[in-house]
Amino acid sequence: MKMLVLTYSGADPERVSTLLDAAGVPGHTCLEGARGHGLTGPRAGTRAWPGTVTVCFAVMDDAIAATAAARCRSAELPPGERLHVALLPVDSFN
Q1: CATH number, position 38
Q2: Which of 32, 54, 66, 85 stands 20 to 30 A from 12 (CA)?
Q3: Is residue 40 included in any domain, yes or no?
Q4: Helix (H) and strand (E) counts for the chain?
């Protein structure tokens, strides 16, 4: 089993759900309005540091995870949007 974790900064968070659905991911959760700091600087939802990110995660079989990660990594996004992908091992899931 693997956990796919995505951070998306862009205008259309539904884009991530569409990618995951197309890859055959059986279910996922997305949390909008996350704040953090990355290579392009802070995203704090303030005037000084505008913007937030959407964090999505899902647990799935290894084969589906590999397909989903590959599709997300190769997704063509509009200029200025970013999608970061992490694939983590999961010891158990029930």
Answers
A1: 3.30.70.120
A2: 66
A3: yes
A4: 2, 6
* 39 found inside a domain: yes
Which ranges of 1-94 would DSSP assign to H, the alpha helix?
14-22, 62-73
Give me the domain span that covers residue 13. 2-89
Q: Note the pLDDT tens digit of each residue in 23-81.
A: 999 999 999 999 988 887 898 889 998 989 999 999 999 999 999 999 999 999 999 99
Report how many domains make up the chain.
1
> Would 81 be classed as within a structural domain?
yes
Distance CA 46, CA 81 (A): 19
Instruction: Specify the residue for token string 């055959």.
Output: 24
> Rounded to whole angstroms, what are the CA distances from 10 to 2, 87, 89, 93?
25, 21, 27, 30
Q: Count Cβ atoms within 10 A of the Cβ of residue 11 and give its class: 0-12 exposed, 13-18 middle, 19 or more buried.
A: exposed
Angle at 21 between CA 79 and CA 75, to 5 degrees: 25
Is 35 among the domain residues? Answer: yes
